[in-house]
Amino acid sequence: MTQKKKVTFDDIARYTNFSKTTISRYFNNPDSLTLENQQIISDALVKLNYKENKVARILANGKTEFVGIIIPDLYHHFYSEILNQILATYETFGYKFLVFIGNKNEETERCYLQELLSYQIEGLIILSHTIPSEELAKLPIPIVTIEREDEYVCSVNTDNYMGGYQAANLLARHHCDVLIHVNTPTSEKVPAYGRLKAFSDFCAEQGIAHEIILRELGSYETSQAQLIQVLEHLEASYAGMKKGLFVSSDTHANVFLNLLMRKHGRLPGDYLIIGFDNSPISREAVLPISTMGQQIDQLAYEAVSLLVEQMNERKKRKPVLLEQPIHKIIPPVFYRRDTTEKV
Fold it and tell me: CA 189 to CA 153: how far, in whole Å?
């Protein structure tokens, strides 16, 4: 069986009556051609059933269509779900992804950055908190961050303040005697600090008894040990009181829920729980968890879209680079499930 001959630039040039140089410009610098000529060549590629040699194109123009991603870990369900949603954008934007897990190690992440740059990535999405945005902004590629300090780079974040305020308000409407917020120690520069600030502001404005509990909640073993102590504290300090808990992530809300279920065999009537994220664990928990939902699919899509805009701009003959970072904010959505009552 005879193999079909591969279509070459010579074939395309003969078909269109353009020079090989013009055909090469179509692939490597399309903006240098008129829209009419771009369309003529595009139509010819379809007619000739041209199959692009991606390796040759990378060698010719240095454009790999690769985007780097650095995430902190895969333990927190928010990160694994947003990674899943970012990867799904390939169907829309056509970019492939190289993924590294930082594990909160600054030197390791710097090594990852150099590794990614050596692969000639065209852009970078970062969820890890380790390297300051001022340092990231000096890299020679566009960068978009998600839910981390972002003063010097473009970002897409949830309106964390709105989410924290709404969570506190919802618990207050359930006539809780005391509101509790469980979080990790968080810098004011990180978007997630808005959850803590809003919770505190709401309780102060409404004169509601409340407590903010900050613990280092890392791996499962660490977070479980810390949340056991939190549970013991709540049982001792607020016995007989209706307690409304706003936990900073669905992952940790699920750990706390499991501790209550093991101790009492059910969710006691004096506990209400709201998580944050709307990651899959909130729906799949032994008792589905009410949560202030980050619109994870939208966060991922907007982050990739914002990055692609910048990468496309840099491919133009006269790119207009951003003078200031763009920061997009996505509103949260509340999902009422079994850990809160109807009001």
Answer: 13
Closest CA to 300 of 308, 291, 289: 308
pTM, to two decimals? 0.81
List C-alpha distances in Å: 41 to 5, 8, 68, 215, 287.
19, 13, 31, 61, 58
How far is residue 52's CA from residue 49's CA, in Å, rounded to a whole number?
Answer: 10
Strand partners, 181: 212, 246
Fill in the amino acid letter for 169: N
The rounded distance, in Å, linking the Cα atoms of 80 and 83 is 5
Paired strand residues for 98: 68
Q: Sort residue 240 into left (φ over 0), alpha (ψ -120 to 50) or beta.
A: left
- Distance between CA atoms of residues 248 and 88, nearest Å: 26
Q: Position 214: which residue type? A: L
CA distances to 138, 152, 153, 320 from 323, rounded to whole Å, are: 14, 11, 11, 9
Instruction: List pLDDT tens digits, range 221-279.
Output: 899 999 999 999 999 999 999 999 999 999 999 999 999 999 999 999 999 999 999 99
User: Closest by alpha carbon to 68, among 88, 95, 103, 91?
Assistant: 95
Q: What are phi and psi of 143, to 5 degrees?
A: -135, 140
Q: Where are the alpha helices (DSSP H) in 211-295?
A: 220-237, 250-264, 280-284
- Residue corresponding to tokens 């093991």: 262
User: First-to-last CA distance in the chain?
Assistant: 72
